[in-house]
Amino acid sequence: MMISYDVSDPEGFAAYNPGSLKEIFATVTKHGGAIVGAGPTDAVTGTPAQTCVCLTFPDADAARAWLDDDEYAPLKAIRYGSTTNITEYIVPAL
Questions:
Q1: CATH number of the domain residue 14 falls in
Q2: Tens digits of per-residue pLDDT, 14-45?
Q3: Which of 1, 27, 57, 92 could tie 62 with a disulfide, CB 3.0–4.6 Å?
Q4: Domain range for residue 84?
Q5: CA 72 to CA 23: how far, in whole Å?
Q6: H or E element: which one contains 76?
Q7: pLDDT value of residue 92
Q8: N- to C-terminal Cα separation, the chain
């Protein structure tokens, strides 16, 4: 799974990262996932969002379950409320 976004409200976003990292990691792990990369993008082509996060899950259902998790919902609301240009997509494993 890939998530990209631009931070539009740095103070608000601080409640998400770094403020809620322990909870974020716990909800990802709960669904068998892991965060494998995160940070500013280094575009080879195109115009990327400011930040990209790469997560791995056992399958697409687990990734969707994480996005829809009730425990993650208030944290996701912080991320959505403090970022713009949000793209979330699931990339199937080969």
A1: 3.30.70.100
A2: 999 999 999 999 999 999 999 999 999 888 99
A3: 57
A4: 2-89
A5: 8
A6: helix 73-82
A7: 87
A8: 13
Burial of 1: CB neighbours in 10 Å, binned 0-12, 13-18, 19+ = buried
* Cα dihedral: 57, 62, 22, 68 (round 10): 140
Quote the CA–CA distance of 43 and 47 in Å, as a whole number.
Answer: 7
- Helix (H/G/I), strand (E/B), else coil: 25: helix
- Closest residue by Cα to residue 4 from 47, 49, 40: 49
Is 94 contained in some domain?
A: no
The confidence band for 93, taking pLDDT boundaries of 50, 70 and 90, is confident
